[in-house]
Design goal:
This protein is α/β, with parallel strands linked by helices and 332 residues long. It is 32% helix and 23% strand. The protein contains 12 helices and 12 strands. Helix 5 packs across helix 6, helix 5 runs parallel beside helix 7 and helix 7 packs parallel to helix 8. The longest helix is centred in the middle third of the chain and has 18 residues. The radius of gyration is 21 Å and the shape is globular.
Length: 332
């Protein structure tokens, strides 16, 4: 977690009104008939050494946001600024440098690791490409494996010879080999057993303490977000609906969607009623007018159906909800 001094630092990474829309094409001439609005007007900032958790159900736009930051997707509108400069204005050499500074750890290490490459080549490939090898390739690989808790005698083995947790450690070693400033963890522990999840999360925290990485930690699991994040942003249908310091949001949620997510966190020996909303999320190609959550919200009033709420201060964090001042949400 960040210290008080670090919290006062200005953000070094800013996302400003970002839209990642995917065109929907039909007909013989592939005419664009609409857009899937995966990320729609999202703003977010990240400080040095900070972990920002991004949480929401499947299809809310979390991964699309991460992929846009990595320049794997092209935005429809908005901007992302890295150290004050728009990454979308970068020329080729600057983009290569950016890809060194921002790394990604994917959900499934088995599909993200080349099965034809051994560990030695996997963890040092980026270093070779960017001229970061200061020692022999083997020594660099052994050092990286030691950082993530793997023995040096595995460097000539292939991904299929490892367990899921070991493969994820190899993915982490590959990411940190580039000496990044920001690491995007896209559901990095969701495919692992619970005991292994705890080991990987503790490893990520230890590496952050050693190297001052910043993390964007994407997850659908608020219990994991609570353990690792300094701040949390809750996404629903392409928009951030609540954001602030993790403890503030989880202990005193305001948005009904956040309340529902928190109600799903299991507490051993303390069963509690779950908040279950009717229906499925609307299509991101044709989102509802006004508040996007209003078709599923039991507290909807007329203004929710016509006016889209903006993120404004509510207590000690920000929320996008017209009823934030009443704070009278109860389980439906």
């Amino acid at each position: 977690m960040m210290s008080a001094q670090e919290i006062k630092q200005p953000p070094f990474f800013n996302i400003d009104q970002l839209k990642t829309w995917y065109p929907v094409k039909r007909g013989i001439f592939s005419k664009t008939v609409g857009f899937v609005k995966a990320v729609d007007n999202v703003s977010l900032s990240i400080k040095k050494g900070e972990t920002v958790g991004l949480v929401g159900e499947s299809g809310c736009g979390k991964t699309s946001l991460g992929r846009t930051i990595m320049l794997l997707e092209h935005p429809y509108a908005g901007d992302i600024r890295f150290k004050g400069q728009s990454i979308f204005s970068f020329h080729k050499k600057q983009k290569n440098s950016l890809r060194r500074s921002i790394q990604m750890i994917f959900q499934d290490p088995q599909s993200s690791l080349n099965p034809r490459m051994n560990v030695l080549d996997i963890v040092t490939e980026g270093m070779k490409s960017h001229g970061l090898l200061k020692t022999s390739q083997k020594d660099a690989a052994i050092h990286l494996l030691n950082e993530v808790g793997l023995e040096k005698n595995v460097i000539f083995r292939y991904p299929h010879e490892f367990s899921g947790g070991q493969r994820q450690r190899i993915s982490i070693a590959r990411a940190i080999s580039m000496q990044p400033e920001l690491v995007i963890c896209d559901e990095a522990v969701s495919a692992l057993d619970v005991s292994v999840q705890a080991q990987i999360i503790n490893l990520l925290k230890d590496l952050q303490d050693r190297h001052a990485f910043s993390y964007i930690f994407i997850s659908h699991d608020l219990s994991v977000i609570n353990h690792i994040s300094d701040r949390v942003a809750v996404m629903y249908l392409g928009k951030i609906v609540e954001t602030g310091p993790t403890a503030n949001v989880l202990n005193d949620p305001v948005h009904p969607y956040t309340k529902a997510l928190i109600s799903a966190i299991p507490i051993p020996g303390k069963p509690r009623p779950k908040i279950v909303f009717q229906g499925a999320p609307p299509s991101p190609m044709n989102p509802p007018s006004g508040c996007r959550f209003h078709p599923r919200c039991p507290h909807t009033v007329d203004i929710c159906q016509t006016v889209e709420p903006s993120l404004t201060q509510a207590s000690d964090h920000q929320v996008a909800c017209h009823l934030k001042k009443k704070r009278a949400f109860t389980a439906p």
